[in-house]
Every structure is written in C-alpha cells, then in structure tokens.
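Much of what follows relies on a compact textual record of a protein's fold. The record below shows the convention in full:
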Amino acid sequence: MNDTKRTATTAHVSGRRQFIGSSLSMAAASVGVGATAPSAGAYAGGDDVLKVGLIGCGGRGTGAAQQALRADDNVKLVAMADAFEDRLQLSLRSLSAQEDVADKVDIPPEQQFVGFDAYQNLLASDVDVVLLTTPPHFRPMHLKAAIEAGKHVFAEKPVAVDGPGVHSVLKTCAEAKRKNLSVVSGLCIRYDGGFRETVQRLHDGAIGDIHTLIANDYRGSIWVKPRKDDWTDMHWQMRNWYYFTWLSGDFNVEQHVHYLDVCAWVMDEYPVKAIGMGGRQVRTEAKFGNIFDHHSVAYEFENGARFFSNCRQQSGCKNNMSAYALGSKGRAEVSERRLEIANQTTWRFDQKVKNMYQVEHDEMFAGIRAGTPLNNGKYMAHSTMLAIMGRMATYTGQEITWEQAMKSTQNLSPKAYDWGDAPEIDIARPGITKFV
C-alpha cells in the first residue's frame, strides 16, 4: 500500500491507494548470521539509538524507512541493501531530501550493499531493526536470516509465494517469539484505528452470525519496465518482478492479500476450502510474464459461511476496492472508503485516525522500547496462505482444501540466484495445470 504522499492523519472518506512498486530484490541461499538477541529491556527509555537497516529500496521500502525514522526520537537509518545499485541510490536520495528525517539518515558507502548477497552483508552489520521490503519470494529467507542474526523485523506483505515459504515463516516467527524479537507485518489495515473499532463491533455481534463475505479488488494496469539489450533473463524478471509468480505470488497474493486478510480478521478464522477461476484476458503479451489479470475465488468456512473474492487488473474498467460482511442481523462495509454497520440503525466510523502505515511502525518501536516486542507472525503467514490457496484454485481449476494447501510441496524458487538464467515462464492453464 502506497502512502508516501499521505499526511500523518487520514479520514476514511479517501479513496483506496494505488499500487506503487515495492522494492526490487536481493536473493541468495539463506545463510544464517549468528547473533544473540538484545535483552528485553535493552532499549527501554529511548536512551539508546536504534539502528535501522533497509533491505529492498523500492517505493515501498523507501516509504517504510520514512515511517520507521518518524516512529522514534532516537533512531537512525545506517545501512541499505538492494539487488540494484540504481534503486538503492534513488531511495537514498529520496530519504535524504525529506526534511523531517534527513538528519536520521547516515549511510556511508561501506554501508550500502548491492547484489545477491546484499541482505547477508547488511545483517552482518551493526543494525538493531531491519525492514524487509523486497518482492515476496525473498521474505522467508530474509526473515529467517534476520531472526537468526538477532534483529527486530518489519516484514512487508505477503510473506511468501508458496507453501514451503509459509511454513518457513511460521517456524521463524516462533523462533522470534522465543528470542523476544519483533515481527511486525505490513498488513497495515490491522493497524488502522477505524478498522480496529469496526471489526471489534463485528466480533461483539453487531450484525449477528456472519454468513457471507465479499472482497473486491478491481483496478487498472500497473508499470512495466521494457527489456534492455544487456539484460539477462534473470535481470529482466527481477526488474519486472510483479509479473512473475515465483517473485510476486501473482497479484491476488501480492495485492489482494490486504482484503483477504480483512475478511479473515472479521471471521477470526480461515476457510477450509476454495474453488475458483481466473486467467489472462488482457495482459497476454510476453512482457506481462505469467501472472493472471483476473481471479475469482469462492471460499467456504467450516460452519458453511461463504466468502467470495474477486480481483482484476485491467485498464478502462471501473475500479472498486471494498469488503462486505452480511450477517443474521445486518450488514457491514469494511473498506478504506467507508466503515459502516447497518442493523436496526446505521453506524459509521467518521473520525480522523493516524495513518495506519505510520501506526504499525510506531507500535513496533514502542514495543521494542518497552521490552514487549510485537509478533504478527501467525496471521501474516496464514493470510498469505489464504491468498496462495486461492491462486492454487484458479491456476488448477480444482477445489483446494486448506489442508492440501498447507501440505503443498510446490517450491517456486529458482535453481540458482545469479544474473544468468531465470525460471521458465510457465503460464497456468486451469484444468491442465496440476496441483503440487
């Protein structure tokens, strides 16, 4: 979610943000950096400088760094890492030009890491908190390495692109809890004051027993970076990471995960099965990689409640980003544009609240200072799996259960992380593509 141009507070009458690319990527085999986590009260009182490292220097990473620097009076950005030198330098210039955080940016050349091993070099440096904002494929390996290195973590959504990645994240987050380290999720809607109050009212029975949920994410096309003559296949795919399932998870995972997570939050549980359809109607050219341009998934909960998820990225069509809940006593809209509950009367949340992107960092750093670090690991991993399960259903054309999805052995990782060959561009064909 892009909020780099928003103010510190935002009303729930504003339109949904438009996508801005999260960072480009680092990769390599996950090699843990041994370290011991700081004691729980190491930063209590705010007397010690919290040193932050940014891994992934695209638009989302730059925004996350700004928010981290605004979240605490005694914090500095001291290291940056990215696969691409130009992305790192662009981010550094942008941060250095922000008047309110520029004096908290101190990154000499020896703390600027580029390449496939950039994240390892950053984690080996003297940082306390790391921001993981690369494409989703790399989140499991980066998170694992960060927790092994004893770092507090902000992890952008989603946190994996396949089942093995989700299991890796769950295991790592359990280890983070044992080591008293933070893992704060980029599923930022859970940090919005209006959403929190609305969902609490639904949990308290405002619309009775919920039997139907709807999540829509209809939007237009996004950026494409034309291939240059000197780009290898891996270079091209990394620059256009959004269009390759192994890197992004497809857009129903990369973007729609927000409202999928909202609906799971409202229900306080996850569906037991899913069936759906999807394909490529408009984005059919080779430059669009192998992701779909539309997905429609019908999920079912254990109690029989249904959840209908629809997302589309096609230009020239009407946009709509929203979520709805229908219950035995009323209905609710749970969206950035409107938070409303209608039963015998209508209640609407219309207060101004602090920007949710800022709040997630404020609460993360407050937890570090208090010695009570936050850990969002379980829901960030399960909501990622919810999105992946939907993709499994649309790619194969089959009904996929939660148990099947969690047991999936499909690993989308490339054979090697180097600048030569890249994974083959295999476009899923429902009814032909097999579940693995």
Notes: Residues 1-11, 13-36 have pLDDT under 50 and may be disordered. The longest helix spans residues 377-396.
